[in-house]
Amino acid sequence: MHIHILGICGTFMGSMAVLAKELGHHVTGSDANVYPPMSTQLEAQGIQLTQGYDPAQLDPAPDLVVIGNAMSRGNPAVEYVLNKGLPYVSGPQWLADHVLQGRWVLAVAGTHGKTTTSSMLAWVLEHAGMSPGFLIGGVPQNFSVSARLGGTPFFVIEADEYDSAFFDKRSKFVHYRPRTAILNNLEFDHADIFPDLPAIERQFHHLVRTIPSEGLVIHPTTEPALLRVIEMGCWTPVQTTGAGGQWQVKLLSEDGSKFEVMFEGVAQGVVEWDMTGQHNVANALATLAAARHVGVVPSMGIAALSAFKSVKRRMEKVAEVRGITIYDDFAHHPTAIATTLDGLRKRIGDAPLIAIIEPRSNSMKLGAHRDGLPESVVDADQVIWYAPANLGWDLGATAALCTVPSIVSDSLEGIIERVKSQAQPGTHVVIMSNGGFGGLHGKLAEALK
């Protein structure tokens, strides 16, 4: 079957393409911006990519068009599909029908940490010899691909609350029907889709409605929004993590790189790993709870986590030039920025820390998070904010509210010059964006040489 995917370089759609290819389909796709790591992964899989949405790519007609949620009415390829009556479907629906049917689905949902936690969970099951399938919105370094079918009924999926397609406004995760569900945390996000936090809570409630009574829901005790979701109705056993929960930790290092795991008051072992930050400790607890539900004893899960290598673009060290370390991070919400910088600060102590932030997500562009940004960067020594041309609010006014030195730059060249003038051996530079950022990471490393 020839499947053509519109919006193929999104992390979800690109991963779905890998699974369709593995099922034996002829897969092609197109996107407005074809950029790594997804483009390189797809090309390595032999999937032909087209830049742009010229309808000519749909002639001869494929057997099925899968339409990504970034596509909207007015897109030339979308209009062609509708006018010609070509069969089409959303990505989550295709996945539910052709991959997840009959599997034991372990879903990881939440505002933050979905990619890292689903990567941890897939790795823990792999380490235990369970050969899980998975679809993850990033490339876990323990696997080097973002998706695979796997050899057993177990399938780990990053479960996103974003909408499914222009013709299906339900959250993606309602298609997945998990048996094991991690609800990591819940804050307002996706301001282009949801008017407020209660609207997102309602979608999480719809997810909870699909989890069987023989399944398991895992959530932290410290998230008021998730407690409200559970109170709307839950027909499934629940395990909790964090303060007062069944799963707890004793930190053995301040930066979160070493901690003891407790389950129902009994010590299970010590995780010692390369990760930092309280958020990753929380991700680890949820992972161990989910893995235990499918038969992985905590001691085995702890051994796996100690060998976990994180995900590309999640505090990934991409270069070290003349003693200056450059990291690539996907953070695009004030909470994620704050927890990431906090974890790095605890690891590097008093070393100089420069944060470079691109407000690129739809919620950021709409200004939904701007009030939380000044507080999110307090652990940096200085911040460089990138102002893209289409930003609809005053980034300079936000930068002026920061308690650490902050400047706004409207060009990559300006950012590079600023870092060159400020960074010295021992400086750590974190580049935060949920896009390619114009290849800034490589250009900066080259300039610092």
From TrEMBL:
<comment type="pathway">
    <text>Cell wall biogenesis; peptidoglycan recycling.</text>
</comment>
<keyword id="KW-0436">Ligase</keyword>
<feature type="binding site">
    <location>
        <begin position="110"/>
        <end position="116"/>
    </location>
    <ligand>
        <name>ATP</name>
    </ligand>
</feature>
<dbReference type="InterPro" id="IPR000713">
    <property type="entry name" value="Mur_ligase_N"/>
</dbReference>
<dbReference type="GO" id="GO:0106418">
    <property type="term" value="F:UDP-N-acetylmuramate-L-alanyl-gamma-D-glutamyl-meso-2,6-diaminoheptanedioate ligase activity"/>
</dbReference>
<dbReference type="InterPro" id="IPR036615">
    <property type="entry name" value="Mur_ligase_C_dom_sf"/>
</dbReference>
<dbReference type="InterPro" id="IPR050061">
    <property type="entry name" value="MurCDEF_pg_biosynth"/>
</dbReference>
<protein>
    <recommendedName>
        <fullName>UDP-N-acetylmuramate--L-alanyl-gamma-D-glutamyl-meso-2,6-diaminoheptandioate ligase</fullName>
        <ecNumber>6.3.2.45</ecNumber>
    </recommendedName>
</protein>
<dbReference type="InterPro" id="IPR036565">
    <property type="entry name" value="Mur-like_cat_sf"/>
</dbReference>
<feature type="domain" description="Mur ligase central">
    <location>
        <begin position="108"/>
        <end position="291"/>
    </location>
</feature>
<dbReference type="Pfam" id="PF01225">
    <property type="entry name" value="Mur_ligase"/>
</dbReference>
<feature type="domain" description="Mur ligase C-terminal">
    <location>
        <begin position="313"/>
        <end position="435"/>
    </location>
</feature>
<comment type="function">
    <text>Reutilizes the intact tripeptide L-alanyl-gamma-D-glutamyl-meso-diaminopimelate by linking it to UDP-N-acetylmuramate.</text>
</comment>
<keyword id="KW-0961">Cell wall biogenesis/degradation</keyword>
<dbReference type="Pfam" id="PF02875">
    <property type="entry name" value="Mur_ligase_C"/>
</dbReference>
<keyword id="KW-0547">Nucleotide-binding</keyword>
<dbReference type="InterPro" id="IPR013221">
    <property type="entry name" value="Mur_ligase_cen"/>
</dbReference>
<keyword id="KW-0573">Peptidoglycan synthesis</keyword>
<keyword id="KW-0132">Cell division</keyword>
<keyword id="KW-0067">ATP-binding</keyword>
<dbReference type="InterPro" id="IPR004101">
    <property type="entry name" value="Mur_ligase_C"/>
</dbReference>
<keyword id="KW-0131">Cell cycle</keyword>
<comment type="similarity">
    <text>Belongs to the MurCDEF family. Mpl subfamily.</text>
</comment>
<feature type="domain" description="Mur ligase N-terminal catalytic">
    <location>
        <begin position="2"/>
        <end position="99"/>
    </location>
</feature>
<keyword id="KW-0460">Magnesium</keyword>
<dbReference type="Pfam" id="PF08245">
    <property type="entry name" value="Mur_ligase_M"/>
</dbReference>
<dbReference type="InterPro" id="IPR005757">
    <property type="entry name" value="Mpl"/>
</dbReference>
<keyword id="KW-0133">Cell shape</keyword>
